[in-house]
Structure formats: structure tokens, C-alpha cells
Design a protein that fits this description.
The structure holds two protein chains of two kinds. By secondary structure, chain A is of the alpha/beta class. Helices cover about 40% and strands about 20% of the residues of chain A. In chain A, the strands form seven sheets. Chain A has a five-stranded parallel beta sheet, sandwiched between helices. Chain A is globular. The mean pLDDT of chain A is about 90. Chain B folds into two domains: about 180 residues, 3-Layer(aba) Sandwich (Rossmann fold); about 80 residues, 3-Layer(aba) Sandwich (Rossmann fold), CATH 3.40.50.300. Chain B is built from ten helices and ten strands. In chain B, the strands form two sheets. In chain B, strands 6-7-8-3-9-10 form a six-stranded mixed beta sheet, with helices on both faces. The termini of chain B are far apart. Classes of the chains: A alpha/beta, B alpha/beta. At the A-B interface, loops of A face helix 5 and helix 7 of B.
């Protein structure tokens, strides 16, 4: 197959199977060993699955849902469906039944391929409410033997049936494969969205491959690169990486389980690694905790060389010249600290490390870059196939998200909204033309809903969600995310919500990080019965207050932000959770939900009260909910005087 | 014989306990107890504290030697069994208080469960010292089985963690893994869910059911959580003061007056429970 014909996702797969049949396409760890599937093997597995789905009655244009953690078998569902002109719809695997039901019904899913019993049970529970759903195919057979339902099929059986169907219908598969079009929808990605119901973003093969090719060319990625795909398959960021590997012919590896991720990353040593800020912060937190428990000498060594890295690491990575002495000191640091640290993270070979999905704290960003990890920010949305702007090598800064990617164009509309024109610009929301018209201009620009500016050197700088930026009563700018990201850099703070729009001053909700604060409690000999109890201990309030005062110091240095210092805060009794609708599945804050649910707490923050009672309800993963009562303290934080 | 998949009645008897009596000095721990275990079932042994449940398990797998009675297992009648005979015959067990090698990793602990399955010629000390072909193949075969157990119990993330560092619920799971590694025909579980929180209990129930389902392993378990017992077992044997006071399906046991009396006390049967 020539390049010009390989313009759909599945045709690109079969071109890879021809051009480099034996190089690895997918790898997964099973029974403690990495099992690889070559492009040729992948091709025949996908073909068997596609024919099996056809034998079950799958038609062109049908919807095929896939639910589970990252497994080669589930990635093959994308290609198998696309080969037949059906549309894959990945769904977040930790979604509660109501969320699943919405997507299944909105898309009118006929076939669902799930990873295991857990997901199959979820679908069985809502099958009645999903009239279009005809068949459920499960990949892992464990526990599935005695289900009486006739519409349940095992993945292996469907493939076996497919091989037979293939033998009986010569040329069927080739014809279906050949009749696909590059501008046909190749997947619907439901966006979690911080407001309203999820929307189905339709992306075509041209969107996905066009973005991937441009990105591979810009970053110089090839078939020898390695990646570990662990992020939810329903997230566009994960799919961008799948497309990159399909386009470059490189290998996609799936971790053994969610808990083994970091060990698996270490074994694979990926050359490219994509993680949302939460993961980068979590990794940094675990390093910080481990260093606090290290011996005095090691702590000194760490502090000393991290100071060296902060001073000269960025210059070195960006190719600026530094003095001979500093170069030597950095080399020593590489030997003692940075090298082992990178090795421990599994990122010694990482040429390209990307963060995206939300802003990353400045200190976190600088930390990774200063030890020589080429961490760059990517800014994009599902609606442009996760491809809009990305830092170039040697020109990465924390306060921007880089210049437009190769093949992309960015402009700032009146009112500051960022507009994007990318090869990945989508083919509209599924069954929602009004919403599509709201975000797509007539001449093909995508309205992002983010406010930003272009710097003089052509980098895009994001300020906040256009609708989240507000003002304090004295008229100064209030950008909540900016403050929250500063707070979240501290290992003890997992999540933060800043309030202040149309108020006199700024206050905040804090979620403690159970691991980090639990560790602190252990060190100071503080006993506690659980998350809620720990969160309300005076010692913990003191600890968090010190963090907040540091942030206030920092804010006071910038005259425009000085009045955004945090005066009072509450540590919440429970973690903000996607299951309760307080965060999106990608851990973005849903401000409206929080303002609604915790309205009393916010009022209390702006009163003179020192304590406030709450009755909270939590939704469990199986859909049940329970309530409990707690008394929350309100704590004051010292503010700093503007020294400028 | 035909086996009803729902009740599993009509299956072969895998173990028959006949008129067992066991005493320690003047203390009568078990008095004239008989029951049988049907192939493929999950049998629960319940009873108040000190009823003789653990003693019963210890008799079955040969830790204790009863003064009277006999045990039929795998077609052989024995007055008493030695633990290694029981293990070789296909009986594996877990303990009320976790009995793992704390300093060894999860994987190593599970590998010890393969001990009896190893070929003695390929794994003797000399062959192991040279690690020649057959020895390697033997180790790979057993490692693969151990990995299947790890996959089954979803403990991949703690494969290389010393078990002493694991929380209690996970240690219980590792112990189940070691028992499973022996490919038992009869699995004895002594309070597999003791000290667990609700979520851990649910997980454990699922594993017990899956073991029974996937491998066809017969399970005899002691448990205090009545919800668990009634949910997962096919039949229940009730002991009280060393005697068997009832035997039957969970529904029969629930309405059995002798059982209610034993649990609530005879005089308290009129009081609100």
C-alpha cells in the first residue's frame, strides 16, 4: 500500500504490516513478561476481530463502544471498527453507570467491547435502559463462565468466528478496508466538559493522522521510539499518542495494571512520555517525600545539587552557554543525583516529555527541566485532536504553552479568546449542530473558550478559562487557576479551589494529600483515624497555613497579584472527586458544582466564623451514596506586604 | 452421578469425616462429629468461639490426631494423617493468623506453594547449583503457574514486595495465592475475611467464588461473617461446644432453632436480637 492510499487509520496499520511486518506494534505485560505483537500479528488480530464483528451483524456507520484499561486488545477495537466503516466510541472506564448510560444512548451504541467482568457487570446493570445495545464482548474471561445472557461473547470466540467468516467471505475484508474514506468519522470522543452534559467530538482519520504526521515531523519521531500508554483510552491525549505510533510505526506499550505503572515505565524506558500535570506533580511529591526520609547526608546532597540544577540546568537544556565550573558541577550532579533520579522515574531515555490538559506549576516544570528531562507543554483540546501548540526543543518556558505546532495556526480574537486552526480541527459534535456552530467559525477556526495572549516571540500564553477570570471588588484581576496551581505545588496540597470573584479578598478550599500529610503525621507522632479526622487536626492546619503564607509571599512580589493573597481557608473533609461531579475525569475543577454544593462553606469563609458544620454526601463507584456530618475549622493566613 | 450445578448435590464425596472425637487432656474439643464435603462445593463451617472449628480443620489436614473416628480422603481411609500426606493428597490451607514468610517477596511466598509440584530430579541441590536445562525449564514452568496465580488475584503490583510490608488484607490474599499455587483439590480457609474492611471482604468473596468456579476447587471455610457465609456457601455445617448441631443449605440453617439458640443463647431467644 502506498502512502497516498494509507490515508485512513486502518489502512495505515496494514501499510505498517507490509513495510515493517516484524517490528513491534504493541506490547503488554502479562504473567510478568512483556509480550509483543508485531505489526503483522496486529494486522491479523484486527482482521479476525473485524470479521467477527461483521459476522455478529456490525454494519457501516454503527457505533462500537470500548471500555477498559489500556490493552492492545482494546486498541485493536479502534482499527477493527474503522476497517468496516463503523465508529469506535471509547468510554472512561471508571465512569459511574449514569455516565456510561448517557454516552451509550447518545451515540446509539450497538456493540460494546469491554475489558473484564467489572465492566461487563456495569453494562448489564444498565442494558435495559440502553435499547440500542445488542452485544457485549469481553476480553478477560475470568469470572464470566456462568453468565446466562446470550448477547455476551468472549473476545477470543468472536475472533475465531471472524477467522471462519473471513475464510467463507473472500475479499470481504479487503473491500471494506478499501472503501473507507479519510474524511469519514474515525472515532467519537466524549469530552468530560467542566459544564453541562458531555459532548461527542467527531474526529476523522484525516484529523488524527494529519495531526500525528505533523507532530512526528516536528519532533523527529520515528519507528524506534517507545511509549507507554496508560492514560484513559477515552482521553484524546492518549489517542494522540496512539496516532503518533501508528503514523511513525513505533511501539505502544501497556502497563500490567494501574498500580504497576511506574515500575513498568522504568522497564520500558520510554523515549516519549505524556502525562497530565497531576501525574508530574504526583511523581515530584513522591520524590520529595522520599528525600525527607533520606539520611542527612543524602538530603544535603540532594539540596546542594538541586540548587546547582536550578541555576544552570535550564540554560544547559536550552543550549545556552554556561561556565566551565558550573558545567563540572552539573556533571557531578548528573552522576550523583539527576541521573539516578531520571533512571528511577524511568525517564533516562525520554527525548520528549509532554504535559498537557491543565497548567503545570512553575516549580514542578522547572524541576523536571533542570534535571535534564525535556518537559514541554502542549496546549490543545479534544476538538482539535489534541494538537495546537507545543514548545520547541531548546525554547520551553513555564509561563507559555509554546508557539503553534507545525501545520497549526493560532490567533487571538477580540476579547482575548484563543482561536485555533489545526489539521485536527474536528468534524463537529455528534448530534449537536448548535454546539458545533458555537465553537467553529465559518472560516474554520476553533473557539477554545480560553483567554490568552501571544508574546512578542510568538509563544501562546494562557491566562485562564475565559469565563473563569474575574475581578476582586477593588477591580484587580482574579485568576483562580493561577493561585490554585501555586498551592498545588506543595506536596501536602492535592487540590485547591480559590474564591474571590466579586469579593473583597481571596479565600480557598484545600484538599490535603493523604500520602504526604499522613507521612508528616507519622513523623510528628500524630495519630488519626482517617482522611476526615486528619484533615481537621490543628497541626495539619498549621502545616497548610505555612504553605499558604509562602504562596502569599510569592503573590505579594507581583503588584497586580498582591491583592490576590489568601486571607482565610478551609481544609475540606473529603477529597474532591470526579464521582461526585466536583472534578472532571481529567481532574479539572467544576467551579459551578463546587460553588453550589459548598455554598455554605464559602459564605462562612467570608464571615467571621471559626467553624462550620457540614453534612456531606458521597457517591460510591457503584452509584450508591451515603451522607455524614463533620465540623470544619476555618483558619486565617497571614498576608505579606507588597515589597515592590 | 449427575451434579446439579446450582446446589452441587449429587456430586462425589471428596472428604468424609466420620465420628471424629478430639480431646486435649480433659478438654473435649470435638465430640463425635461427622460430615462430608462434596466435590466442587463451597462448605462453610460456622459456630460460636471455641466451638472447635479450627480444631476440625487441623484434624482434616493432619495437624491434630483425633482419638476416635476416621477420615476418608481421596478414596483412602485414615485414622490420622500427617500434614505432608494431606498436602501431597491435594489439601491446601490458609491460617487464621497469616502464616507467611514475612521477609520473602510475594512471588517467593507463592513459589513455595509449588514446592510439592517440583520435579525432585530437576530441582535437587546439585541440579539447582548448576542451573542446567531441565532445572531452568522446571523453574520456568513453576514461575508461569505462580504468575497465573498473581494475575488471578490481581497482585502484580506487589510481586516483588516483601510480604511483611504489606497491609493485612493483602497478606491474606498472598496466603490464598500460596495455597492456590499447590493446585489443591480441597482448599481449607480459616477465617479468610477476618479483620478486613467491607471492600476487602467483597474482593475476597469474589476470589473464593472465582477459585471454585474457574478451577473447580472444592472449598471448606471457617467464617464468622454470617452475611458472607450465607452469600457464598453451598452448604453449612454448624458446630457448638465440639458437637455438630446442624448441617444444610444456608436457608435451612437460617431457620434452624438449634443454631439460633447456639448463637443467641437459649434463654435469650425471646429477647430482641
Amino acid at each position: 500500500m502506498s502512502d497516498s492510499q494509507a490515508d485512513t487509520m486502518p489502512r495505515r496499520l496494514y501499510r505498517n504490516a507490509q513495510s515493517h511486518p516484524d517490528s513491534p506494534a504493541f506490547a503488554e505485560k502479562y504473567l510478568g513478561i512483556w509480550q509483543t505483537y508485531s505489526w503483522k500479528k496486529t494486522g491479523s488480530e484486527v482482521r479476525a476481530l473485524a470479521c467477527g464483528l461483521a459476522s455478529l451483524g456490525l454494519q457501516r456507520g454503527d457505533m462500537v463502544a470500548l471500555i477498559g484499561t489500556n490493552r492492545p486488545q482494546l486498541y485493536w477495537v479502534f482499527f477493527a471498527s474503522q476497517s468496516l466503516g463503523a465508529i469506535p466510541v471509547p468510554i472512561y472506564q471508571d465512569g459511574i453507570p449514569a455516565e456510561l448510560e448517557f454516552v451509550l444512548n447518545h451515540a446509539g451504541v450497538r456493540f460494546a467491547v469491554v475489558e473484564n467482568q467489572e465492566q461487563a457487570d456495569k453494562l448489564l446493570a444498565i442494558k435495559e435502559q440502553c435499547p440500542a445495545l445488542e452485544a457485549i464482548i469481553y476480553s478477560d474471561t475470568k469470572g464470566m463462565r456462568h453468565y446466562p445472557e446470550s448477547f455476551l461473547y468472549s473476545y477470543a470466540d468472536v475472533q475465531a468466528q471472524g477467522r471462519q467468516y473471513d475464510a467463507e467471505h473472500a475479499d470481504f475484508f479487503e473491500q471494506e478496508l478499501a472503501s473507507g474514506q479519510a474524511d469519514e468519522v474515525a472515532g467519537i470522543f466524549y469530552t468530560s466538559g467542566t459544564t453541562g452534559e458531555p459532548k461527542g467530538v467527531q474526529l476523522t482519520s484525516a484529523n488524527l493522522l494529519g495531526s500525528a504526521e505533523a507532530c512526528n515531523a516536528q519532533e523527529g519521531l520515528g519507528s524506534a521510539d517507545r511509549q507507554v500508554n496508560y492514560a484513559p483510552m477515552a482521553w484524546i491525549g492518549d489517542h494522540l499518542f496512539l496516532s503518533l505510533s501508528l503514523s511513525a510505526g513505533s511501539c505502544t506499550s501497556c502497563p500490567e495494571s494501574r498500580e504497576t505503572l511506574f515500575a513498568d515505565v522504568k522497564e520500558i524506558g520510554p523515549t516519549m512520555f505524556f502525562a497530565p500535570p497531576a501525574i508530574w506533580e504526583q511523581l515530584l511529591t513522591s520524590i520529595t517525600i522520599r528525600m525527607e526520609d533520606a539520611s542527612r547526608f543524602n538530603r544535603w546532597l540532594f539540596r546542594h545539587f538541586m540548587a546547582v540544577a536550578r541555576r544552570v540546568g535550564l540554560d544547559l537544556l536550552d543550549g545556552r552557554s554556561i561556565g566551565v565550573v558550573d558545567r563540572l558541577r552539573y556533571a557531578l550532579g548528573e552522576l550523583f543525583i539527576y541521573g539516578p533520579l531520571k533512571n528511577n522515574l524511568g525517564l533516562s531515555h525520554a527525548r520528549l516529555a509532554i504535559t498537557g490538559g491543565a497548567p503545570l506549576g512553575e516549580d514542578t516544570f522547572i524541576f523536571y527541566r533542570s534535571i535534564g528531562i525535556n518537559l514541554k507543554q502542549l496546549y490543545a483540546q479534544t476538538e482539535c485532536s489534541a494538537y495546537a501548540t507545543l514548545h520547541r526543543n531548546g525554547d520551553a518556558r513555564q509561563d507559555t504553552v509554546g508557539p503553534p505546532c507545525r501545520g497549526c495556526d493560532v490567533q487571538i480574537a477580540e476579547g482575548g479568546e484563543i482561536l485555533v486552526k489545526s489539521p485536527g480541527n474536528f468534524a463537529g459534535y455528534f448530534k449537536n449542530p448548535e454546539a458545533t456552530r458555537e465553537v467553529m467559525t465559518d472560516d474554520g477556526w476553533l473557539r477554545t473558550g480560553d483567554a490568552g495572549i501571544m508574546t512578542d516571540d510568538g509563544h501562546l500564553k494562557i491566562i485562564d478559562r475565559a469565563r473563569d477570570v474575574g475581578a476582586l471588588n477593588d477591580g484587580t484581576l482574579f485568576a483562580p487557576q493561577y493561585i490554585e496551581n501555586k498551592l498545588k505545588f506543595f506536596p501536602y496540597i492535592r487540590e485547591a479551589v480559590a474564591h474571590g470573584n466579586s469579593r473583597d479578598h481571596v479565600t480557598a478550599f484545600i484538599n490535603i494529600d493523604l500520602e504526604a500529610v499522613g507521612n508528616y503525621a507519622e513523623r510528628i507522632g500524630l495519630s488519626y483515624s482517617g482522611y476526615t479526622d486528619l484533615s481537621q487536626r490543628p497541626e495539619v492546619y498549621e502545616l497548610i497555613a505555612r504553605n499558604i503564607e509562602e504562596v502569599n509571599q510569592d503573590l505579594s512580589r507581583d503588584s497586580s497579584l498582591s491583592s490576590s493573597q489568601i486571607r482565610r481557608f478551609i481544609i475540606l473533609h473529603k477529597e474532591l472527586d470526579a464521582d461526585d461531579g466536583e472534578l472532571t475525569r481529567t481532574r479539572k475543577i467544576r467551579r459551578a458544582t463546587i460553588a453550589d454544593r459548598y455554598g455554605d462553606l464559602i459564605e462562612a469563609l467570608y464571615s467571621s466564623k471559626q467553624e462550620v458544620a457540614v453534612e456531606a454526601s458521597v457517591t460510591l463507584e457503584d452509584g450508591r451514596s451515603s451522607t455524614f456530618n463533620a465540623n470544619l475549622r476555618i483558619h486565617d493566613a497571614a498576608t505579606a506586604v507588597n515589597k515592590a | 452421578m449427575t451434579v446439579d450445578p446450582q446446589t452441587k448435590t449429587g456430586g462425589n464425596l471428596i472428604l468424609e469425616v466420620e465420628n471424629i472425637s478430639l480431646s486435649f487432656g480433659a478438654v473435649r474439643a470435638i465430640e463425635d462429629v461427622s460430615f462430608s464435603v462434596i466435590e466442587g462445593e463451597i462448605l462453610a463451617i460456622i459456630g460460636p468461639n471455641g466451638a472447635g472449628k479450627t480444631s476440625m480443620l487441623n484434624v482434616i489436614n493432619g495437624f491434630y490426631h483425633p482419638q476416635e473416628g476416621q477420615i476418608q480422603f481421596g478414596g483412602e481411609v485414615r485414622r490420622q494423617m500427617r500434614p505432608y500426606q494431606a498436602a501431597r493428597g491435594g489439601i491446601a490451607r490458609t491460617f487464621q493468623n497469616v502464616a507467611l514468610f514475612k521477609g520473602m517477596t510475594t512471588l517467593d511466598n507463592i513459589m513455595t506453594g509449588r514446592n510439592l509440584k517440583m520435579n525432585r530430579w530437576a530441582t535437587n541441590i546439585f541440579a539447582a547449583a548448576f542451573y542446567v536445562g531441565p532445572t531452568r525449564r522446571e523453574e520456568m514452568r513453576h514461575r508461569e503457574y505462580a504468575e497465573r496465580v498473581i494475575d488471578f488475584l490481581e497482585i502484580q503490583a506487589i510481586r516483588k514486595t516483601p510480604v511483611g510490608r504489606l497491609p493485612y488484607g493483602l497478606q491474606k490474599r498472598v496466603e490464598l495465592g500460596r495455597a492456590l499455587a499447590a493446585e489443591p483439590t480441597l482448599l481449607l480457609l480459616d477465617e479468610p475475611m477476618a479483620g478486613m474492611n467491607l471492600e476487602e471482604k467483597q474482593d475476597m468473596c469474589r476470589y473464593v467464588l472465582d477459585v471454585n468456579d474457574e478451577f473447580g476447587t472444592t472449598v471448606a471455610l471457617i467464617e464468622h461473617d454470617m452475611g458472607v457465609v450465607m452469600d457464598i456457601s453451598d452448604r453449612v455445617v454448624v458446630l457448638d461446644y465440639g458437637r455438630k448441631i446442624a448441617e444444610g443449605t444456608p436457608d435451612e440453617i437460617k431457620s434452624n432453632q438449634a443454631v439460633i439458640d447456639a448463637y443467641l443463647g437459649t434463654t435469650a431467644s425471646s429477647a430482641t436480637a
